[in-house]
Amino acid sequence: MFEIPMWVLFVLGGIVVSAFMAVKSGKEDRQQEQEIIEREGEVYIRRMEEEKHKKIGSDKERVYEN
Fold first, then answer.
1. Is the CA virtual torsion 26, 32, 35, 41 positive or negative?
2. 66 lies in a domain?
3. How far is 2 from 9, CA to CA, in rounded Å?
4. pLDDT band at 43, cuts 50/70/90?
5. Model's pTM, two decimal places?
6. Owning domain of residue 49
7. Is residue 52 part of a domain?
8. What is the structure's pLDDT at 24?
9. Residue 57 included in any domain
10. What average pLDDT does the segment 8-20 reach?
């Protein structure tokens, strides 16, 4: 059969393992980035709601002042 040197098999195995790890770490990075984006979005929405409540509150005070 084929007589492939052992070091060639190790090199090919290393390439396969490296490709697998690259795909795995890329997937984990995308997941972490998505979680960070979602947290930042929640903070932004919370700030917008607080501003909305402040604006509504200040509008009510103006009505009572007149």
1. negative
2. yes
3. 12
4. very high
5. 0.58
6. 29-66
7. yes
8. 97
9. yes
10. 97
Residue 39: inside a domain: yes
Core vs surface per residue 23-48: b (16+ CB within 10 A) or e:
eeeeeeeeeeeeeeeeeeeeeeeeee
3-class DSSP state for residue 3? coil
pLDDT > 90 fraction of the chain, expressed in percent and rounded: 71
Q: State the average pLDDT over residues 9-28.
A: 97
DSSP annotation string for 4-66: --HHHHHHHHHHHHHHHHHHHHHHHHHHHHHHHHHHHHHHHHHHHHHHHHHHHHHHHHHHHH-
Domain count, the chain: 1
The rounded mean pLDDT for the chain is 88
Length of the chain measured in residues: 66
Close Cβ partners of 36 (under 8 Å, ≥ 6 residues apart): none
Q: How far apart are CA 39 and CA 47, in angstroms?
A: 12
